[in-house]
Every structure is written in C-alpha cells, then in structure tokens.
C-alpha cells in the first residue's frame, strides 16, 4: 500500500484516550466471563498499558487514561505510573456495567467508588468519566446529573451515531457545555464525520482496527482541516495484545474483539505520526476552566442542552 504524505496538522490538537481495562472486561464477554470470576483470569492490563505508555513516550504524546475502578483497586501502582509519566487519569466506572442497565442508585455507587479508588491510587483528581460502551443514551441521561453531583466536570460517554447498543444520533458532534438540574459539565462526544444525513465514527476502537487505516486518516484530516474540529481518539490496552487468551462469544463478538489485533500497534504508530494528540483536559482547556473548588467555568459555549 502506498502511504500518502502526512497531512499538515499543526493547528489542531486532538485528544488521545485509553480505556484501561482487561480483555475479559469487554461488554461482549458479559455473561461469558462472570464478574465473580474476573479475579481468576490471567491479567494482562498492566503490561499492555505500560507498552502504550512506552509508545506514547516515543512520540511525545500525552493521553487521558479512563481507568476501570476494578483495575485501579488491584493495580494501584499502574494508576500512579500513568500519572508519574505525565498523563491524565479519569474514570471508566468500577464494574464495567452498562449505564442504562443500572438504576440511578447503583450507578452512583459505581462511579463514586471508582473515582475514590482512582484518585487514591493516582494521588490526583479524576474529574472525567467515560461509560462502558458509550452507554449514556437518551434513556440514561439522568446519569449526567449523578456524574455532576459526584464531582465530575466532563463526560465522554455520548456517541452521536446510530448503533445497536449506544448512541444519540442528534447529539452535537463537538465538545459542548451541558447545563443540568444538578449543575454543569462538559460533554466530549466520540468523533464522527458527517456524510449526508449520517454521522460515521472515526475515533478509534473497532472502527480503527477493523476498517482500513485510510478511513481513520481521512476522517481525522477532514475533521481537522475542513471542519476545524479536534478528534477524540480512543483505544484499549488489549487492542495491542494479539497473544491474549481467546474467549468464546458469538461470531459478531469475536469479529469485533479479535479482528486485526496484530495490526493495531503499527497503525497506532502511524496515527501518532500523522496527527497531533494531547489529553482530553488539554482539549477542553480552551473551552472551559475548573476552579480550585471544582466549579466549571465555560469559556466558549458551542451548544447548550
Ligand atoms: Zn470499557
């Protein structure tokens, strides 16, 4: 394959993010690996995350790491290492339960527990949150009130697309300020390109691994240079681990999880060469500030909900 010259990208800082979880935490394996057996599984999250840290060092990239509370509880040194190596830590919840499958009370308990564990391990604030499988949808918007009440100032859980398990297709496509009953927070949507009436994902995960890299490069270049928007990219430590144990799931689940694992690290290196990345916090710093008391002060208001 011929590689085109890297696009010029000096003016746009994109956000890099990692959902720090092990291969058996993924929603597709819900019911195949019960939570009660997680502790018996071979853990590979530390070595895979440390590998990502080494790669980010090589390319001088700072990232946001949304850490699963269950992982932070068992591997607090990993959270501390992420912070010490100059990255941002945020929360991926505690038990990797889909938001719309929880009651507001269990969701509150989950995010409160995760935030406390991550902050204790990292020795710093963790004011960002991303839900498992982008599971804040139109039927779980109540979660935003709970996130605000529990001290989060940004959320990255809403994908403005149609998908079988998540998405709010009419939601704004760039970071926006949300005013809720409980207060305010910044919402950082998953990245899409708009083609006709459709928003198509370009921000990582299975779309990065399964589709040709040319799709991601075209999409992020379009966002940066045509729409003058930043992209928010995401990946998981298990995505650069082709040696991980194979778990049984339906064919679609297996396809989504295992396809092209051996290619992801190489693609990530190309991505880090082609575009400029920083933390989600850095992306939001031109749009909002957080006071020492945790108060969110918007500097720009692209949208209000
Ligand atoms: Zn996850």
List the helices and strands and how they pair.
Elements lengths: L13 E7 L24 H14 L5 E4 L1 H6 L1 H9 L3 E4 L12 H19 L5 E2 L12 H8 L4 E2 L20 E5 L2 E5 L4 E4 L2 E4 L3 H6 L2 H14 L5 E4 L15 H8 L2 H14 L2 E2 L1 H5 L3 E3 L5 E3 L7
Parallel strand pairs: 1-2, 1-10, 1-11, 2-3, 4-5, 5-7
Antiparallel strand pairs: 6-7, 8-9, 12-13
Helix pairs in contact: 3-4, 4-5
What does this structure look like?
With 305 residues, the chain is of the alpha/beta class. It is 34% helix and 16% strand. The protein has ten helices and 13 strands. It has helices at 45-58, 69-74, 76-84, 104-122, 142-149, 205-210, 213-226, 251-258, 261-274, 280-284; strands at residues 14-20, 64-67, 88-91, 128-129, 154-155, 176-180, 183-187, 192-195, 198-201, 232-235, 277-278, 288-290, 296-298. Strands 1, 2, 3, 10 and 11 form a five-stranded parallel sheet that branches. It has a four-stranded mixed sheet with strand order 4-5-7-6. The longest helix has 19 residues, at 104-122. The structure holds zinc ion. Zinc ion binds at residues 19, 21, 92, 96, 132.
How far apart the termini lie comes to 44 Å
How many helices does DSSP assign? 10
What pattern of helices and strands is seen along the backbone? EHEHHEHEHEEEEEHHEHHEHEE
Ligand inventory reads:
zinc ion
- Average pLDDT rating: 91
State the low-pLDDT regions, or none.
1-7
Shape annotation = globular
Rounded radius of gyration (Å): 18 Å
β-strand number: 13
Give the % helix: 25-40%
Largest sheet, strands/sense/barrel: 5 strands, parallel
In terms of DSSP E residues, the strand content is 15-25%
Structural class of the secondary structure composition?
A: alpha/beta
């Amino acid at each position: 394959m011929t590689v085109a010259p890297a696009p010029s990208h000096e003016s746009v800082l994109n956000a890099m993010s990692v959902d720090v979880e092990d291969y058996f935490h993924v929603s597709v394996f819900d019911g195949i690996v019960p939570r009660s057996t997680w502790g018996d599984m071979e853990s590979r999250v530390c070595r895979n995350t440390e590998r990502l840290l080494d790669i980010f060092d090589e390319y001088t990239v700072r990232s946001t790491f949304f850490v699963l509370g269950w992982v932070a509880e068992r591997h607090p040194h990993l959270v501390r290492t992420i912070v010490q190596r100059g990255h941002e830590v945020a929360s991926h919840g505690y038990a990797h339960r889909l938001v719309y499958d929880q009651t507001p009370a269990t969701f509150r308990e989950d995010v409160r527990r995760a935030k406390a564990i991550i902050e204790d391990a990292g020795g710093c604030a963790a004011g960002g949150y991303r839900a498992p499988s982008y599971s804040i949808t139109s039927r779980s918007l109540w979660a935003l009130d709970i996130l605000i009440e529990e001290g989060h100032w940004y959320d990255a859980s809403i994908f403005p697309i149609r998908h079988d398990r998540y998405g709010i297709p009419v939601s704004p496509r760039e970071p926006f300020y949300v005013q809720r009953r409980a207060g305010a927070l910044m919402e950082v949507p998953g990245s899409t390109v708009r083609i006709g009436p459709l928003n198509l994902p370009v921000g990582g995960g299975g779309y990065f691994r399964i589709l040709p890299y040319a799709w991601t490069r075209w999409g992020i270049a379009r966002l940066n240079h045509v729409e003058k928007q930043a992209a928010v990219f995401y990946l998981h430590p298990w995505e650069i681990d082709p040696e991980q144990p194979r778990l049984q799931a339906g064919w679609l689940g297996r396809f989504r999880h295992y396809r092209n694992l051996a290619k992801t690290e190489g693609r990530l290196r190309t991505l880090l060469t082609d575009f400029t990345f920083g933390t989600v916090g850095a992306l939001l710093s031109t749009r909002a500030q957080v006071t020492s008391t945790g108060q969110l002060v918007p500097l720009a208001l692209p949208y209000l909900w």
